[in-house]
Amino acid sequence: MRYPDLYILRHGQTEWNAENRMQGWLNSPLTPKGEMDAARQGEILRSRDLSGFEFWSSPSGRAVQTAAIACARLADSIHTDIRLREIGVGDWSARLRDELPMPDGPDPYMQQYAMAPNGEGFEALQTRAQAFLDDLTGPAVIITHGITSRAIRSIIVGEGALAKPSVHGGQGCVFHIKDGVQTLLE
What is the pLDDT of residues 134-173, one digit of tens each? Predict the structure, then answer.
């Protein structure tokens, strides 16, 4: 399937990101660094021609706060869609990662999301991300979360979209996807 031109932003650093705490569907506010992350994303977006683009955000406070900073002078309106929220981590919401079981393997942090008791799981996340993409009618700027961004990008680009993860998980940068090719804008 062919998808429209997309710019995908992860919210800026939050207080819980800085504490290495699982957020999932809960929220914590942006840190001063997170506000700078969002401002940097706004600088990147202002250098692009966004004529005809719609702006979509997760309804989570950290994403809405990022959208307000990054897109303030760019968007007439920013729509929210619950399908853009972060993966649910169930019983592990608000828990420090260091207190949780750390599986062995190539990507233990990602495995923690998969094993969270009463969590949403990757299959359900993929399903809602796909449904969001299927409903897009044109080019869009999407403000979302780290794992949801990964899901959206892997649907469009394939697993190659995740081959070179950034140290910051996308905070402060923008992923541009055009014609099935992903470019990291920093």
Answer: 999 999 999 999 999 999 999 999 877 776 555 457 899 9
For 47, the domain range is 6-185
| Alpha-carbon dihedral angle through residues 13, 16, 20, 22, given to the nearest 10 degrees | -110
Question: Is 11 known to sit in a ligand binding site?
Answer: yes
Q: 65 labelled as ligand-binding?
A: no
Residue 178 has pLDDT above 80, yes or no: yes
DSSP at 52: T
The total of structural domains in the chain comes to 1
Which residues belong to the active site? 11, 86
User: Is residue 20 annotated as involved in ligand binding?
Assistant: no
Kind and range of the H or E run holding 122: helix 122-135
Q: What is the CATH number of the domain that holds 178?
A: 3.40.50.1240
